[in-house]
User: Fold this.
Amino acid sequence: MFNATVKLLRAGDWAGWAAQYAEDAVFQPPNGPAVRGRKDIRKWGDAFPPIEAFGFSNVQVSGEGNFAYGMSAYTLTLKGLPPDTGKQLVVFRRGTNGWQIVAVSFNSDLPLPAQTQ
Assistant:
């Protein structure tokens, strides 16, 4: 799924990206509330700024039975913004429709901007 995610996001295919998620999935982006359910995950993606570059590295997947988890680093460049790097944790569940994402949490490695007082 990591390779499929890269391909879908580079193409701006938010419908295809969201289809990888289970109906009851939880998506935990940085700096915002958790997004619950495939429908709302798709809405989140549709509102995301244009992506200029995206990729995963150091992908590791492990699991047993009908559950697996994956960890990776990511690089992300959004139009008009400096490049970002970060990490993610993804949980997968195998069901009647194959493997689906049930939870994702990711965050940036970049420091927060300096606060002015």
